[in-house]
Design brief:
By secondary structure, the chain is an alpha/beta fold. It folds into two domains: 198 residues, NAD(P)-binding Rossmann-like Domain (Rossmann fold), CATH 3.40.50.720; 106 residues, UDP-galactose 4-epimerase, domain 1, CATH 3.90.25. The protein is 34% helix and 19% strand. The chain is built from nine helices and 14 strands. The strands form four sheets. Strands 3-2-1-4-5-6-11 form a seven-stranded parallel sheet, with helices on both faces. Helix 3 links the parallel strand 4 and strand 5.
Length: 319
């Protein structure tokens, strides 16, 4: 089990929203190399570390495996966050999640096998559960029947990681995230609502029925959970849900955003969507059971509404 102290760590997608926060936390005690193609990650997220001698950046694409073996040279552990995070996109472009999630993960695992790097932490998603009939949903829920191509691609990645661990004596930590929000967020409902209300402060289009109800967690809290899992679990394949213990619906989120922006009497217009969903593949109800990670000694610092409020304040002050 890695101690996460004095290690050489590769973070794929380290210039992204969650990745950049993870890099910040890891740099406190480790040497960190970010591998990113900067298609969605931002260089400014990494700018504070550019003079840190323990920080390195490799601009490369996981779909072009040539750079991977070189990047893994001397690395103790990989945090694999590089992916296309836009769930909605799968209904428009059916290849994007296959390539940027599944094939990218396969290329990484192959390079790890060849370079004998045996530890990987992977950011999966609550969408692998599909429309779960057990809520809160535990890690051993099944069968896993995702309803989005994004969820399917992440489930395929989990399966690849599991099989590589068993076949090539690797060890893995798989995180199934609730909705993660906070400073540097680049997509999702909060970013959309802020953009829409800046364009028209009097009216807000809400996708779906507004009753879609999900769990949210602040990004720094999420990173603490990720590191806590690695430090405190030592199975070959360690799977953990990471989220808060409650949920909020989309209309409540709209209320929080409008309030934080100082807007009164905003007219909400609901699209109705697909059977009340915001889009095809949108899970209507999501709340994860976090009993497993709580048994390791981690608990969320706040609930979903608090995470959203903190995130909206950070997004408003940073833009």
């Amino acid at each position: 089990m890695p101690t996460l102290k004095g290690k050489s760590i590769l973070v794929t997608g380290g210039a992204g929203f969650i990745g950049s926060h993870l890099v910040e936390a890891l740099l406190a005690e480790n040497e960190v190399t970010v591998l990113d193609n900067f298609s969605s990650g931002k260089r400014e997220f990494l700018a504070p570390h550019q003079n840190n001698p323990n920080f390195h950046v490799i601009e490369a694409d996981l779909l072009l495996p040539g750079a991977l073996e070189k990047a893994l040279n001397g690395v103790d552990m990989v945090f694999h966050l590089a992916a296309n995070p836009d769930v909605k996109l799968g209904a428009e472009n059916t290849r994007v999640h296959l390539e940027q999630n599944v094939l990218a993960t396969y290329n990484l695992l192959e390079a790890m096998r060849k370079t004998k790097v045996n530890h990987i932490a992977f950011t999966s998603t609550s969408t692998i559960y599909g429309e779960a009939t057990t809520v809160p949903t535990p890690e051993d829920y099944g069968p896993l029947l995702p309803i989005s191509l994004y969820g399917a691609s992440k489930l395929a990645c989990e399966a690849l990681i599991s099989s590589y661990c068993h076949t090539f004596e690797m060890q893995s930590w798989i995180y199934r995230f609730a909705n993660i929000v906070g400073e540097r967020g680049t997509h999702g409902v909060l970013v959309d609502f802020i953009r829409k209300l800046r364009e028209n402060p009097k009216e807000l289009e809400i996708l779906g029925s507004g009753k879609q109800k999900k769990s949210y967690l602040e990004v720094r809290d999420c990173v603490k959970a990720m590191l806590h899992c690695v430090k405190n679990s030592e199975g070959q394949i360690n799977v953990f849900n990471i989220g808060s213990e409650d949920s909020v619906d989309v209309t409540e989120i709209a209320n929080i955003v409008a309030q934080q922006m100082g807007l009164n009497d905003v007219q909400y217009c609901y699209t109705g969507g697909v059977d009340g969903r915001g889009w095809k593949g949108d899970v209507k109800v999501m709340l994860l059971s976090i009993e497993k990670i709580k048994m390791l000694g981690w608990t969320p610092e706040g609930g979903s509404a608090q995470a959203i409020e903190t995130a909206v304040k950070a997004l408003l002050s940073g833009s």
